[in-house]
Amino acid sequence: MRKQDCPIKKEWIVLNVELSFGVNDPKKIDIQELKKTYKITESLEKLDRDLIGLGSVKKRIQEITAILFMDKIRQDFGLSKYYPGLHMSFTGSPGTGKSTVASRMAELLQNLGYLSRGQLIVVSRDDLVAQFVGQTAPKTKDVLEKSMGGVLLIDEAYYLYKPNNEKDYGGEAIEMLLQVMENKRTDLVLIFAGYSEPMKMFYRSNPGLSSRVAHHIDFPDYSREELLTIAKKLFQERQYELSFYAEEVFLKYLDLRCQLPLFANARSIKNIVNRACFRLASRVMGETGVFTYKSLINITPYDLILSTLFLKGLKTFPMTKIGYSKRNSEIRTVFQVLEYEKLNYVEKPGKPQRSSKVFPVYVWKNFS
Question: pTM of the full predicted structure?
């Protein structure tokens, strides 16, 4: 008798899975309240106020903040702690806000509990590397100890490495930085900053550094309009105002200055603003014995035109308004050019005083 195959009894196993989406979660966390606790929104808004433009940079900072914030929430739910790499590289021209972003990043990391103190220390090669044997290690160690619990920004970091100089001790400082980046990464964030191309060569020469830098952020140069906005903001902070024609002269100044070497974006704008305020003070002191509110705050073209940058690129003519003409329903002002010997028009002795007012008009050589 042939043995019959035993029939297989099929049983369906039903898994009753309840997708609660937080309804029955034993623990709930209010994200908005947690943002207030860690001051996330406050810090990001402060960064946005401090910096004009730089949309790509702000987006990267928001992304880094988001993953750190999410990591804190995961820990509150009992999930495993993941410590993301926080060492960074900031590349770009001078005056593009690298130090400001580093300061806000230190503040964010302290609020989130990744740093104990949250201070920003900015150094260069001279602060880390000594000229004689045996002096670099204690010098670098001292900087690292002061930076613990915060952010250490090394400006123009590529100067640390000089491969063609056998007597250079920059390599010793780099070795100490590598050790700290690995062993003290829970209480110290290093940011290497400098021009883009030299920084690429620096990382290629030091692969150990490159592998430990998790975030590479490029800072673009400011546009013409953004530089003007920065200038206006700086003037407003000092309670000064750019007149309409002064704004036109300022834009021309930017066009000329950006073409010259060593232009430092917002840093150069700050210097321009300071010099304009100095010239206003000197002008008002020499022109009048009575101060008015307008004279104390109004930046005129004259306060910008005296820059040495305009000596070859601009001719200045005092001109007198002599009337108006209507053409094609447009009102146009007619000016008569007056000969002069000095920058400020002065009535010559023996001639009757003119009743018309003298207006300074600025004409560039390449003006068509």
Answer: 0.75
Residues 129 and 64 in one domain: yes
Domain C-terminal end among 219, 243, 259: 219
* Region for residue 22 given its phi and psi (left: phi exceeds 0; alpha: psi -120 to 50; beta: otherwise): left
Q: Output the tens digit of pLDDT for each of the chain's 368 residues.
A: 444 455 544 444 444 444 444 445 556 778 888 888 888 889 899 999 889 999 999 999 999 999 999 888 888 788 877 777 899 999 999 999 999 999 999 999 999 889 999 999 999 999 999 988 889 999 999 999 999 999 999 999 999 988 777 778 899 999 999 999 989 888 899 999 999 999 999 999 888 888 899 999 999 999 999 999 999 999 999 999 998 888 988 998 888 888 888 899 999 999 999 999 999 998 888 876 778 898 899 999 889 887 777 765 544 444 444 443 444 444 333 333 333 333 344 444 555 444 444 444 444 444 33
Both 227 and 324 in a single domain? no
> Which own/partner contact pairs does 355-358 have at CB distance under 8 Å and 24+ positions apart?
356/320, 356/321, 356/322, 357/320, 357/321, 358/318, 358/319, 358/320
Range of the domain at 135: 31-219
Q: Is residue 106 part of a domain?
A: yes
